[in-house]
Amino acid sequence: HVQENVLQRVLQLPVVSSTCETLQRKYSSTKESHPLMASVCEVYERGVQGAGALAMWGMEPVVRRLEPQFAVANNLACRGLDHLEEKIPALQYPVNK
User: Which controlled-vocabulary keywords does the entry list (predicted)?
Assistant: First the structure.
């Protein structure tokens, strides 16, 4: 059976996904309407991608060693998310509802 990933589950919650979509639309429209902002954003995006790739390369050995602990933490977080979803039905609705 496929291991659940708590981050993927959180991102799939309607309240979270609708918020992310709204933020993405606002970010894109701001970039489109302000040329100076677009160039600043592009430089920032390239920097984040480069830093992210470098960080992942440097962290890979540590992540491999800590994989069992990550699996335990992920399972606990998934159980906690199950509990939250049960207790807070509003998580299943988009922000506008």
Answer: Lipid droplet
- pLDDT tens string 61-96: 776 777 888 888 888 898 898 998 899 888 888 887
Domains of the chain by residue range: 42-96
Which structure tokens are listed for 34? 């302000």
- Does residue 4 contact residue 80 with C-beta atoms inside 8 Å? no
> Cα(71)–Cα(81) distance, rounded to whole angstroms?
15
Taking only Cα atoms into account, the Rg of the chain, rounded to an integer number of angstroms, comes to 18
Cβ(96)–Cβ(18) below 8 Å: yes
3-class DSSP state of 1: coil
